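Weekly modeling sync, notes
Attendees: AB, CL, MP (scribe)

Item 1: holo prediction request
CL wants a bound-state model with dinuclear copper ion before deciding which constructs to order. AB pointed out that an apo prediction alone won't tell us much about the pocket. Agreed to run with the ligand included and paste results into these notes for async review.

Input as submitted:
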Amino acid sequence: MVYGFACAPANRPAGTVGSADAASKVYVAPGQHDEFYAFMSGGFNGQIGVYGLPSGRLLKIIPVFSQFPENGWGYSEETKPMLETTFGNIPWDDLHHTALSQTNGEDDGRWIFVNANNTPRVARVDLNTFEASEILQIPNSGGNHGSPFITSNSEYVIASTRFSVPIPQADVPIADYKKAFKGTISFIAANEPGKMDVAFQLLVPGYDYDLARAGKGPSKDWVFLTSYNSEQAYEKLEINASKADKDFIAAINWKRLETCAKTGKAENWPVDYVHNVMDEFSRVARSETKKSVKMLTPQSCPNSIFFLPTPKSPHGADVDPSGEYIVAGGKLATVIPVHSFTKLQQAIKDQAFETEISGIPVLKYDAILAGEVKDPGLGPLHTEFDGKGYAYTSVFISSEIVKWKLGTWEVVDRTPTYYSVGHLMIPGGATTKPSGKYAVALNKITKDRYLPTGPELTQSAQLYDISGEKMKLILDFPTTGEPHYANAILASKIEKQQKKYYSLAENRHPQVAKAERDAGIERTGKVIHVRMTAIRSHFAPDNIEGVQVGDTVLFHITNLEQDWDIPHGFAIQGAINSELLIMPGETRTLKWIPRSIGVFPMYCTDFCSALHQEMQGYVRVSPVGSSVPLTANTLKAKGQVARAAQRGITLPTPPGAGTGPVDAHAVHTTGAPRPR
Ligand code: K7E
Ligand code: CUA
């Protein structure tokens, strides 16, 4: 190892810069904003961390595939369906890669897509709400690591299977791997919010498929993805999948596949997969199970896929801003091979094929090679670009970033990372217009970089200034969860589109209470619906009686505020899920099943005003069969008294309710009937 991290003295870590120069480059003065938003995958935490660059300040955690008790994601009744799959409701996944939406090969700031590795899914996160709005399960996939990668006009998100598996799934001996196991590459239509779908899949040989990049410019109709384990080993892969000198980059013409799918060349394969969407107006997620997928094969859609021999167990495949060069990172390779898109086109024309595998022509290495970067360090993984003619490759084993020149392939600079960099990220580095100002190393090992925190240390990211000839390390900053890939975008591209609150007038939640007079309580058998409102600084109702042990109580809480930055929280003693954090104008539901008699407090969890601590109430729980009538101290709304009377309930009017200064914030109903 070139940079042995074990040798670094614990009290004086290697790579300390500490110069005033570096400090001034990352200093964002109090009250000032960062220049970039960085979206860092959280790895095994299943979330996205949003950081400001260059400061490295954490701005937000966006839960996607994992429940998040901090705001009730995956705990509230409205968000539970987002985690629905054919395997049931899954509270966790492993999130590795981010892909900002693009228009004409540039980041457009609409969405960021992320993958769930373990139970294959792709999510869309809206960049005006910083919330996941849609999650699509990927069928016929054994692990969604090579995902998501986006085409240059966001036509498709590409997701390939890491593990090959029997497709369709079947009970077969594992030793039948070569015969029975296959891979798939999925093309997800992504350009219409709420309508993500697997447009078609391509059935490919039983290898492991890995990272991808769509082409751009001249290569924009293509996507390039790495594969390894062309040995088709199914045990002890560490040894058995590292035997061949070369594996492959698959070059796929997605335009041609699209045409094949549209002209009836695909078969409909029955398979169940789940699509979850957060409705924009009700803010209630719904799940739908889809039943079939269009399957293409190299035979049914000829000339759609080619194999590019690439040394050795490649990991990353990256395309330079011009769309001409395809760079492979070989985990075990001693060079970085760069393929030429022009040569690839010519080689296909000339049929410069070495062989064919399952209907896939294998091109001759020499016919497609643009050049090799010599002495790239040990274990090159991922490459990004600065838009000024240089490429930057992360090198895991020798723990460095290597800068080299496109076209001459000479290494011009190298700098250590602390320690063992995985991905690196340049804002816009995967697009036609990289910013070329900073690079972030997303490291795998932390060791001595921060104050120690027991057996588990924080995660390590590092910011480099790449604006000059030499890369300069200017900041260490810790991240939450293990970062794999990340994207950053100029703040100016998304800052202004931020949603400040949800419109109460447009709230179509079936249990919304748009004003205190709409609050109420109803029992149907063992289920009690409480329509509650929250506004600085009280809940209405704030006293509930007549609940019985074992009832299912659904608190539907509408935050009546129409102001930025005024969420209210809600918690009740003994609830076995989480709190709710309710954004202004939205309705969120907490399910609570009381298990014992008593009077249980509930309160607002978000310090919202000087009288936040007064924002509290009680629920009285009586034994099963008790004669305590169901009551809530709500206002007597029109119709509500009559409805309550039908159920034998007399509604009290709390003294002073709905009057006083706080009511000035109340937004009154439009008179529209509440949806039932
Ligand atoms: Cu290289 Cu999952 Cu993108 Cu991590 S992966 S490093
Ligand atoms: Cu509402 Cu604190």
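Recorded for review: Helices lie at 20-26, 177-180, 237-240, 254-262, 341-349, 365-368, 640-646.
Action items: CL to compare against the apo run; MP to circulate these notes.
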